[in-house]
Amino acid sequence: MAWKDIKNRVKRQLSDYLELPGDIMLDLPKIVLVGNLQVFIENHRGIQEYNPRLVRVVVNDKVIEVTGENLSLRNILPDEICVEGQISAVVFLS
User: Fold this and answer.
1) What is the CATH number of domain 28-93?
2) Adjacent-strand bridge partners of 57
3) Is 15 exposed, middle or buried (0-12, 13-18, 19+ CB in 10 A)?
4) Tens digit of pLDDT for each residue in 26-55?
5) Per-domain residue ranges for the chain?
6) pTM for the structure as a whole
């Protein structure tokens, strides 16, 4: 088992024991989808790609892909991004 896997498992157990949210202890993204009109992504590392049909946001060692029509970035903060438009899918890419 890799050191990273052991470290994440210990953090997860500690998070469960202390009843802390995983997004804080494990630096996981928090995604809130409001219907098919908005998606809020917290704990991001930046934007990889953006156009009116596709937004790719980097989180940890993965990428979150938001697809749809008329997509726009409503706000970009150091810890949160809001994407608006007609959202058709939200997918995790490795």
Assistant:
1) 2.60.40.2000
2) 47, 64
3) middle
4) 578 899 999 999 999 998 999 999 999 999
5) 28-93
6) 0.76
